[in-house]
Q: What sequence folds into this?
């Protein structure tokens, strides 16, 4: 097997992906497949952590758009990520992959508090670390949590696992002539307003020279391909 390109990765999985084809709830088959793929990456000797979204259960921004107080809606969204994290931890341990679940919002009966040095220590011991509850603050997305945690623990790359196979110059669902980028800079993505991540997350990655690989998680084996550096999506990099 080809050597991994990265020795330390943070995988950002959108909550919607856990919902399988429907995009809602938690689909056990999908969860099992993700767990198997994440374990395979860990098996390559790569330090692996995961930030998980909560959109399959509740999306803060949508709640706010429907009239809810934004902070309350975001707290609901953060709690949704905890539910997904527990499900992913269970799935990973079923395939015998050791994990630790760390939360940004205190709930010590359920999972460990996020402590940076502890997260690093867990990784030293070969555990897959799952970060939940976003950054613990409203008005921030789980993409921003991914950028923040990746910078904090020294991950070399964010692997953004989504339902599309990269970043396009316009919405490929609406435009037949949409062109996919193989590579783009953070600055260019920001300037063009491309929906890679929200601007806060993208800026944080740019400031910390943190590359992002955007790829389609629906294709089996893609997480390992991304780790090996195969050209399967779009790379957002400083240059
Ligand atoms: P090392 O001792 O460094 O190897 O790490 P460890 O995680 O095995 O040790 P620890 O005694 O901290 O944790 C044992 C188990 O308890 C692990 O499954 C942890 O995830 C869990 N755990 C640790 N702290 C907390 C906490 O504050 N709340 C909850 N719910 N679980 C915790």
A:
């Amino acid at each position: 097997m080809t050597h991994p390109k990265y020795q330390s990765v943070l995988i950002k999985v959108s909550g919607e992906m856990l919902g399988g084809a429907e995009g809602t709830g938690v689909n056990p088959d999908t969860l099992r497949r993700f767990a198997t793929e994440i374990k395979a990456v860990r098996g390559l000797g790569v330090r692996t952590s995961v930030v998980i979204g909560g959109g399959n259960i509740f999306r803060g921004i949508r709640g706010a758009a429907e009239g809810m107080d934004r902070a309350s809606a975001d707290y609901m969204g953060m709690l949704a990520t905890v539910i997904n994290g527990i499900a992913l931890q269970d799935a990973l341990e079923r395939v015998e992959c050791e994990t630790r679940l760390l939360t940004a919002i205190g709930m010590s009966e359920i999972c460990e508090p996020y402590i940076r040095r502890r997260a690093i220590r867990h990784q030293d011991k070969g555990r897959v670390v799952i970060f939940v509850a976003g950054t613990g603050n409203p008005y921030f997305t789980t993409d921003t949590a991914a950028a923040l945690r990746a910078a904090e623990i020294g991950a070399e790359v964010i692997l953004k696992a989504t339902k599309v196979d990269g970043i396009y110059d316009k919405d490929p669902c609406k435009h037949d002539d949409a062109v996919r980028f193989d590579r783009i800079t953070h600055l260019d993505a920001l300037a063009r307003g491309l929906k890679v991540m929200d601007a806060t997350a993208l800026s944080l990655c740019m400031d910390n020279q943190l590359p992002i690989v955007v790829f389609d998680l629906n294709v089996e084996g893609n997480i390992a391909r991304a780790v090996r550096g195969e050209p399967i999506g779009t790379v957002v990099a400083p240059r």
The first helix runs from residue 15 to 18. The radius of gyration is 17 Å. The first strand starts at residue 8 and ends at 13. Residues 100, 108-113, 121, 125 surround guanosine-5'-triphosphate (CB under 6 Å).
